[in-house]
Amino acid sequence: MHKHPVLYEINTRVFLNSPFYNPNPDKPKARLIDVPLSFWESLSRLGVDHVWLMGIWKTSPAVIRHCCFQEGLINSYNRALKDWRDEDVIGSPYSIYEYKLNPDIATEAELQKVRSALRELGISLILDFVANHLSADSVYLREYPGLFIQCTNELYSSDTHSFFSHPLHPAISFAHGRDPFFPAWTDTAQLNYFNPETRLFMIEQLRYAASLCDGVRCDMAMLNLNNVFQNTWGGILSENNFHKPETEFWSDAISAIKVAHPDFTFIAEAYWGLEWQLQKLGFNYTYDKLFLDLLKNAPPESIRAHLYAETEYQNKSARFIENHDEERAIASLGKERSIAAAVIIGTVPGMCFFHDGQFSGKKIKLPLQLGREPIEKPVPIVHKAYHRLLEILNQDIFHRGEWELLITSSSWETNFTYNNLLAWQWQLEKKKILVVVNYSPAPAQCRIKLVLAGFGEIIELTDLWHNEKYLRSAEEAQNQGLFIDLKAWDCHILEIV
User: Fold this and answer.
1) Rounded to an integer, what is the distance from CA 263 to the centroid of its chain?
2) Percentage of the chain with pLDDT > 90?
């Protein structure tokens, strides 16, 4: 496994409904098997290691009708897609009816063909696993109500947003899934992770998913940690005589899957500073949302400080500047700054995580419930920058090399812009690549001391980003430091020989 892999997220239902695959909206939508091999080959050439097909499981039309036409959602549809129609509302892919493939997307045989094609290209297939909840109309709620958090009808009557009734179980009510800091998700039903039967049942669903793919992105993974679950649902659980288990669900689940699939990849959507705990439980990668927040809101010194974290933690962090939950990078950061941020996430340790449409500079964040997106013109400067960046990252040094954070210092006594320059290097055998990013809206200068044992008196620096070459004194670069002068939001990616 690469130590610095590239993940590419695709909103599968929207992707198959795009004009590229479905130019006539009156005809049936394309299926996954219809995606030409040339598309997957294009991702392989860019160095993509994992493709995440987001939203491939079966959803419920009944939940769509009841939950997806609320005022707040309608407002979000109006902002994202001016000409949306009722049939464009296809429901959240995270309200899963059952762990079977959406028949509009693929059969098992079709998915396995796509998976095999990806494997031939050196790309692994990632699917969703939503452990915390299922659809409020889930087939499992009908058949196995004991797997879910139950409550009295009186509690439901007092809080109809957090709880709901089910026509097949009139004597009891159920809890909607929730993040404790936000209102409940009314299209979901909360699973009970203090019930041993629920844990075993969900591990079986995970085993089925693992038979179809090479890894899973686990939605809101921290919600199933024992302490978090206790804090969120403790009152109801104790009333129903459920108590905190001795082991963590994720430790049990990951261990169970890796017995049969030792190279299976687990990626956790995780927040609240619980990323390290989830890594210790077996996750290969955890979201680094804090890094995105720093890139959006903090000075470069704070970004640099974040990169002093332990090597193991960094290597297991998934870095991103947009995904289906976040604003588009070009909208939240602007063109030049978003490109600088992309260079940063692309050249620090860990998983580098990109989102379909990011490379062309899409600006509109699409609500998850919509199955069609607006047509946006590509932004040439963004498209060119991403393809150059991916071409650079496809070198062996970024996958097998050693990474080191470097110190920037003032280039003269009264110059303090060096604080705005972020610098690090990758080294593999005798090859070095130095990355310097000016993460500020004004020019900046600095010096960076390099260790150049084994290099000649004159070093040649090839700027892979700007396609320029420089000759510099090795003695000066080691003793005084290599002089760097960059425009606002600009960068050097310097190959040193």
Assistant:
1) 19
2) 94
| Position 407, amino acid | I
Neighbours of 425 (CB within 10 A): 22
Strands 173-175 and 163-165: antiparallel
- Kind and range of the H or E element at 163? strand 163-165
Q: Enter the tokens of residue 403.
A: 């990474």
The pLDDT score that the predictor gives to residue 24 is: 53
Report the pLDDT value the prediction gives residue 413, as an integer from 0 to 100.
80
Element of type H or E holding 51: strand 50-54
358's tokens: 């990011």
Q: What is the mean pLDDT of the chain?
A: 95
Q: With the CA atoms of 351, 38, 118 and 17 taken in that order, what torsion angle do they form, in degrees rounded to the nearest 10?
A: 80
Output the six-digit token pair for 45.
Answer: 């050439």
Helix (H) or strand (E) holding 240: none
pLDDT score recorded for residue 29: 76
pLDDT at 18 over 90: no
What's the whole-number mean pLDDT along residues 189-208? 98
| pLDDT tens per residue across span 24-49 | 555 567 899 999 999 999 999 999 99
The token duo for 415 is 């110059």
Domains of the chain, first to last: 6-400 (3.20.20.80), 402-496 (2.60.40.1180)
CA R_g for the chain: 24
Taking the C-alpha atoms of residue 422 and residue 409, their distance in angstroms, rounded to an integer, is 11
Strand-pair partners of 129: 218
Query: Residues of 284-302 as b/e, b for ≥16 C-beta within 10 angstroms?
Result: bbbbbbbbbebbeebebee
- The mean per-residue pLDDT over the stretch 276-280 comes to 98
Q: Which helix (H) or strand (E) holds 267?
A: strand 265-268
Of 242, 257, 154, the C-alpha closest to 198 is 242
Phi and psi dihedrals of 50, rounded to 5?
Answer: -135, 135
Pairwise CA distance, residues 360 & 379, whole Å: 6
Across 108-127, average pLDDT = 98
Residue (of 72, 6, 83) closest to 354 by Cα position: 6
Buried b / exposed e over 226-251, threshold 16 CB at 10 Å, is bebbbebbeebbeeeebeeeeebbbe
User: Could you tell me which residues are beta bridge partners of residue 52?
Assistant: 9, 126
C-alpha pair distances (Å), 285 with each of 54, 114, 271, 353, 439: 17, 24, 13, 11, 26
Q: Cα 340–344–346 angle (5° rounding)?
A: 115
Q: Beta strand 458-463 with 444-448: parallel, antiparallel or unpaired?
A: unpaired
Q: Provide the pLDDT for residue 28.
A: 67
Cα–Cα distance list, 193 to 133, 242, 285 (Å): 10, 9, 22
Residue 3 confidence (pLDDT) above 90: no
